[in-house]
Amino acid sequence: MADTDSLLAEALAKIAEADTLDLLEQHRVAFLGKKGSISALMKTLGGMSPEERSEAGARFNVLRTEVADALAARKVALESAALEAKLASETLDLSLPAPEASTGSVHPVSQVMDELAEIFADMGFAVATGPEIEDDWHNFTALNMPESHPARAMHDTFYFPDSDEQGRSMLLRTHTSPVQIRSMLKEGAPLRIIAPGRVYRSDSDATHTPMFHQIEGLVIDKGIHLGHLKWTLETFLKAFFERDDIVLRLRPSYFPFTEPSVEVDVGYSMEKGRRVVGGSGDDEGHAWMEVLGSGMVNRKVIEFGGLDPDEWQGFAFGTGVDRLAMLKYGMDDLRAFFDGDLRWMKHYGFAALDVPTLSGGVGVSA
Amino acid sequence: MKFSLSWLKDHLETEATVAEIAAKLNAIGLEVEGIENPAEALAGFRVAKVLTAEKHPDADKLQVLSVDLGDGQPLQVVCGAPNARAGMVGVLGTPGAVVPSNGMEMRKAAIRGVESNGMMCSSRELDLGDDHDGIIELPEGAPIGAEFATFADLDDPVFDLSITPNRPDCMGVYGIARDLAAAGLGTLKPVADTVHAGSYPCPVEIRSDDRDGCPAFFGRTIKGVTNGQSPAWMQARLKSAGQRPISALVDITNFVMLTYGRPSHAYDIAKLSGPVVARRAKAGEGVTALNEKHYLLDDSMTVIADDNGVHDIAGIMGGEHSGCGDDTSDVLLEVAYFDPERIAHTGRTLNLTSDARSRFERGVDTDFLGTGLEILTGLILDICGGEASEAVHVGAAPAGGKVVRYELGLAESLGGVAVREDEQRRILTALGFEIAEIENHWAVTVPSWRPDVDGAPDIVEEVIRIHGLDDVPSVALPRGEGVAKPTATPMQSRERRARRAAAARGLHEAITWSFLPMAEAEAFADEPLWILANPISEDMKAMRPSLIPGLLMAAQRNMARGAASVRLFEVGRRYLRGKGGASDERLTLGVVLAGERTGRSWQSGKAQGFDAFDAKAEALALLEAAGAPVGNLMVMGEAGSQYHPGQSATLRLGPKNVLARFGTLHPSVAKQFDLEGAVVAVEIDLEAIPAKKGAATFTRASYTPPSLQPVSRDFAFLVPADLPAGDLVRVVKAADKKRIVDARLFDVFTGQGVPEGQKSLAIEVTMQPVEATFTDADLKSVSDAVTAAAAKQGATLRG
């Protein structure tokens, strides 16, 4: 009896005192190793009578288990302490900067074009495109601007010395309207398209650049009239600016490719030196600003588009995408749009994930 | 088109205010660009009488005046004008008034120690003329103390309208009055219809030898005129239109043009010789026009000429030599009709604009030649005296009287607003249209001054613009059933994905000019460029054959502004030559990386620049986003001379279809663009990416993740130093297509242990068991296949 009790006491004391894993291992070997004292004790069982063996075996097993448990417990404690000490030495200054990753941006013009595509898709308009290097038939003649037409001269056209195989002079399109003709010829009627893209005028000053972006809209169907045009533009502008108080003023005007033609003004007020769209231009503190040119498609243009103007009629409109972007997002210098200045793009650009959706809203709040 | 309110009221009986007139003009399509009252700028300038003028005690050239404003309390004013003297009446700027010519506000001030309570003004100071030799002298009887603007008839608001090119009739005040009257703003006064019979036959023969260009030539002579100054009322009107009065005869022709939209010309008969004839110019003929420039003419142009030569570029500008001067006593008047297309052509060819051209090319009233001539004659006789000959009418302008079939319902079915029949009739009649009712429609005769109206939609426009567009109700477009259908084409979706992927990868989207300077464009051109005939500057002359030059220029600007790292991209078109003389505009994504890839940092040390692999990474990522099968792409050479020959490549789908070029820019190109350090670029032809085959479906190929662990083995090969690593990886991966799912190169080594002229490539091959784990025999079989495939590339397994 006494030998096991004292052995247990000795072992537990030594294990408790062990302050390194190495020392603990030495103790384990000393007690439980093949030549350890407890192992030696176990070996004495073989020489005992069955009765003695039964009694001593139970005792020895308890002894062995208790020592083994104590060793394990002490090992966990020592390991845990060692880990704590190691971690304490691994402290990082997390106020140091993390590796930098460049954050890119989408140009406001692209963003606004995506917004427009989203809004007009809901009204059933597809996006159409056409060449920017156009021929004068598509850019002028088919839009009811024959060669001598004074409106041609007003277009400040960039010309190329080249002609195409049909002898048509090549030029940079002065508006997106030739896409009307191309779409009618290709798709026929009924038709609902918008055509955003680059256009060119040989004009350059503080508010004009020789290249800018327009968006054209065209609806060809049966029974379409000016009231549909008004609704479409109102609906579009309300969705684009996400305001219900958009008020339009239609003014008679002249475009060779529409008859009747109307210019469209929108009411606005000045807030902190910037134009904010909304309200009637006749209201106190408000004024009108021209935002769109539009009208009912001229019969001749419908004919040039290969359709019967007695059967089909429709409306067309056009506006500046850059200007819409400026009005909505508050840029004030058109020339900066085409400079590629990183500082400007970081300020006015949009995140890759700012994808306009109808459910999430087509605008990105500042 | 500018005109004063009183000029308008010469023709429109109205009580409307300026604001009401402006609102109505806008509403009917005559856009008001501005309204200015010259009197507003002259507030505080008053008629004043100089009572005494004494020498300034301390200045030789100054006088001290006592000036009376009629209130019995004379003011002391210091004045430097030599003509200032006691008894004269002039214009005094009182404190608070702002000098129009320089924007300075008048204040009480001491001038050389003497108090001055205002300034006696010159014409130039008040922006009323060039005279600055002395102060304005008014007639004796001028009302002392009155506002000068009122006294000088300057209190007359001036409207500035933007007239659309379809409305030549509104390029005269009378036409504007007619529109306003139709819109209910007053009553149109009739045109004077005095006919001057003439007391002698016209002594100068006039005729037209070019009946196409000049179908009508009306004229007469007036002898014994005195060509002095035109009367003040006419000068005031011309000034309101922004015209400088010249002489009575010139002013009268201008006045008739601006009032009735009817250009005319007056020749000094003393400078003419023989018949005055409208004819085509002869090639090589020239004329010096009134703008003192000489124009070389050709036989497409109509001119007015006599025996000595050309006197007038018909309908555009008169000649300097036959115009009227101070000593003119006998004049020949020309009121003609010129073909609009020919005028436009001539004007364009000569690059010559004029008030006459803009009216003739838009189309003047075909029925106003005779009336115009009589009005002109009457004004000359009234103002310049003289004796008129009989009028001569040669030819006739194209017959008007165009008739348009018009159904009343069209106002609603096209214009969107129902307008009552009587209102439609009233509007059209007031505008000069004549209506004949025929069964279920109207036959509408178009007035001779409306060349723009030639169809029923034009009539709708007339009706609804006068009726008021505010009354057009909004009507919703018919909507398709259900949720709106997607509209984007595959190409549009591709463009959007590529753009957003680029932004997500840390690139900033620029939009650069479509045109480039020649040298920069040529450096990137593989075929003839599109070059503008009339560029706005040499820097914007050639259409870009690549997106890279514009991005390089933007990168350079950013670096010049101090940017350390530039990551730019653009999605836009390149302009190439297409079929049949058309363009081939290819939607392209360009990327330029310049400066630092990573800045210096506490973790990674020194700043690092970009290299060709950054370009490759962008190229592959963006191609994948754009839907290209990147696993099938081959890295090949020939990126182009713009790139570093050893650090650039193309990505191709098959040997001919180049989807992208990428790499380090050639140092000489970087230098040309003034960029320092390594610059890398990528250009992806978004239109070269093949469309997905087969019908679109949402269902994907079925897939179950394998339940067994993949196994990997490393292989190290010795290969010839110039073997592209990609070639080895490709064959290794293809060595056992059933079992090998990936082959990844993880080490390239030359040096100790690797023979000269060779390199060691280490590849980790991943194999995926499907039904049962691999046996040793399986693995050996794969290993043998890999080794055999590599051997075909000249690779030996490294011992």
UniProtKB/TrEMBL annotation, chain A:
PANTHER family in alphabetical order: PHENYLALANINE--TRNA LIGASE, MITOCHONDRIAL, PHENYLALANYL-TRNA SYNTHETASE
Protein name: Phenylalanine--tRNA ligase alpha subunit
This protein's encoding gene: pheS
GO CC annotations on file: cytoplasm
Reaction catalysed by this enzyme: tRNA(Phe) + L-phenylalanine + ATP = L-phenylalanyl-tRNA(Phe) + AMP + diphosphate + H(+)
Binding positions for Mg(2+) per the UniProt entry: 259
Co-factor(s): Mg(2+)
Taxonomic classification: Bacteria, Pseudomonadati, Pseudomonadota, Alphaproteobacteria, Sphingomonadales
Family assignment from sequence similarity: Belongs to the class-II aminoacyl-tRNA synthetase family. Phe-tRNA synthetase alpha subunit type 1 subfamily.
Listed EC numbers: 6.1.1.20
Keyword set, alphabetical order: Aminoacyl-tRNA synthetase, ATP-binding, Cytoplasm, Ligase, Magnesium, Metal-binding, Nucleotide-binding, Protein biosynthesis
GO molecular function: ATP binding; magnesium ion binding; phenylalanine-tRNA ligase activity; tRNA binding
Organism, as annotated: Croceicoccus pelagius
Subcellular location: Cytoplasm
InterPro entries: aa-tRNA-synth_II, aa-tRNA-synth_II/BPL/LPL, Phe-tRNA-synth_IIc_asu, Phe-tRNA_ligase_II_N, Phe_tRNA_ligase_alpha1_bac, Phenylalanyl-tRNA_Synthase, tRNA-bd_arm
Positions of transmembrane segments: none
Keyword check for ATP-binding: yes
Domain of life, per lineage: Bacteria
NCBIfam families in UniProt: pheS
Automatic annotation (TrEMBL), chain B:
InterPro entries: aa-tRNA-synth_II/BPL/LPL, B3/B4_tRNA-bd, DNA-bd_dom_put_sf, Fdx_antiC-bd, Fdx_antiC-bd_sf, NA-bd_OB-fold, Phe-tRNA-ligase_IIc_bsu, Phe-tRNA-ligase_IIc_bsu_bact
Keywords: Aminoacyl-tRNA synthetase, ATP-binding, Cytoplasm, Ligase, Magnesium, Metal-binding, Nucleotide-binding, Protein biosynthesis, RNA-binding, tRNA-binding
Gene Ontology biological process terms, A to Z: phenylalanyl-tRNA aminoacylation
Domain B5 per the UniProt entry, residue ranges: 399-474
Documented EC number(s): 6.1.1.20
The keyword Transferase is assigned to this record: no
FDX-ACB domain sequence ranges: 706-798
Cofactors named for this entry: Mg(2+)
Gene3D superfamilies xref list: 3.30.56.10, Bira Bifunctional Protein, Domain 2, Ferrodoxin-fold anticodon-binding domain, Nucleic acid-binding proteins, Phenylalanyl-trna Synthetase, Chain B, domain 3
Catalyses which reaction(s): tRNA(Phe) + L-phenylalanine + ATP = L-phenylalanyl-tRNA(Phe) + AMP + diphosphate + H(+)
SUPFAM superfamilies: Anticodon-binding domain of PheRS (SSF54991), Class II aaRS and biotin synthetases (SSF55681), Nucleic acid-binding proteins (SSF50249), PheT/TilS domain (SSF56037), Putative DNA-binding domain (SSF46955)
GO MF annotation terms: ATP binding; magnesium ion binding; phenylalanine-tRNA ligase activity; tRNA binding
Gene Ontology cellular-component annotations: phenylalanine-tRNA ligase complex
Cofactor annotation remark: Binds 2 magnesium ions per tetramer.
Location of the TRNA-binding domain: 39-149
Record localization: Cytoplasm
Binding-site residues for Mg(2+), renumbered to this chain: 452, 458, 461-462
Family note: Belongs to the phenylalanyl-tRNA synthetase beta subunit family. Type 1 subfamily.
Quaternary structure, from the entry: Tetramer of two alpha and two beta subunits.
PANTHER family named in the record: PHENYLALANINE--TRNA LIGASE BETA SUBUNIT (PTHR10947:SF0), PHENYLALANYL-TRNA SYNTHETASE BETA CHAIN AND LEUCINE-RICH REPEAT-CONTAINING PROTEIN 47 (PTHR10947)
Record protein name field: Phenylalanine--tRNA ligase beta subunit
Organism expressing this protein natively: Croceicoccus pelagius
